[in-house]
Structures are given as structure tokens and as C-alpha cells.
Write a structure and sequence with these properties.
Elements lengths: L1 E4 L2 E5 L23 E9 L7 E4 L4 H9 L5 H13 L14 E3 L12 E2 L2 H10 L5 E4 L2
Parallel strand pairs: 5-6
Antiparallel strand pairs: 1-2, 3-4, 3-7, 4-5
Length: 140
């Protein structure tokens, strides 16, 4: 994982991904890590995984795909889109999944259920440096 500030690379981190690390996340329980453009919607200093930054999955593209593939309803789609436009927390309990975090507890393997895991010292540094609302890009 790379951290940028003002378009300049600041730091590179080793990460662990979901147990299904290659494909983009499609649905709840697929154990894949989502790919795309997100933002930090919350910071949790009481995380079960040391510290964590919540990312805004599902995003608008995920909602469009979910509606097209009949995984979510029009109302769920619209709620996701409204939340993203407000930079709020998108619904976390649809068939698309949710509760995707950048968190601690180790990056030595792909072990999460879809999150991005870092070493504790790395998430501590990132947690201190990144405010709520910061952009997050996850690419293959």
C-alpha cells in the first residue's frame, strides 16, 4: 500500500488482504477486498484489530453493479449513492457487504474477510496521519 500527500509518495506499507485476494469484492461473504475509489468515513481507536480506518465501501460503482445484478434494491442503491454524495457512511448491511477497514494485527499473509491489514506500527502511523474524509484508492 502506498501513502501519497499532495500527489507525492510518502510511504509504502506491506499489506494483508482478504482470504480471496485476487478478485474485486462482489458480495457479502466473498472474502475479497474491494477495489476502487473510497474515502475514510471513520477512525476507530477501540478496534478489535488494534486501530482501524473505515473505508466507504460500497461506493457508487458497487451500487450500480449491485442493482444491475439484482443483489440490492433500488432503495438500497439510492441510499448508498446519497451517503457517498454526502461523504457519510454508506449502508454496511446489504448483500454487497460492508465493514471494510484498514486495520492492524499483521500483514504477513492474506487473512482478512475483505479488509486491508497492516502491521500495528504501520496502522498507528497511518491512523495519526489520515483524517476522516481522506481519499483511499485500492487497485489490483
Amino acid at each position: 500500500m502506498e501513502l501519497y500527500s499532495d500527489s507525492k509518495l510518502v510511504r509504502t506499507y506491506k499489506v494483508g488482504l482478504g482470504l480471496n485476494p485476487v478478485p474485486d469484492k462482489v458480495r457479502q461473504g466473498d472474502r475479497a477486498t474491494p477495489e476502487g475509489e473510497f474515502y475514510v468515513f471513520t477512525k476507530n481507536d477501540k478496534s478489535a484489530f488494534y486501530l482501524s480506518l473505515g473505508i466507504s465501501y460500497p461506493n457508487v460503482e458497487d451500487a450500480e453493479r449491485g442493482l444491475r445484478d439484482k443483489l440490492i434494491s433500488r432503495a438500497q442503491h439510492d441510499a448508498i449513492v446519497r451517503a457517498i454524495k454526502r461523504k457519510a457512511t454508506p449502508p454496511q448491511n446489504t448483500a454487497l457487504g460492508g465493514d471494510i477497514y484498514i486495520h492492524g494485527n499483521g500483514a504477513s499473509s492474506d487473512w482478512t474477510w475483505g479488509c486491508v491489514a497492516l502491521e500495528n506500527e504501520d496502522i498507528r502511523e497511518l491512523f495519526a496521519a489520515v483524517p476522516v474524509g481522506s481519499p483511499v484508492t485500492i487497485r489490483p
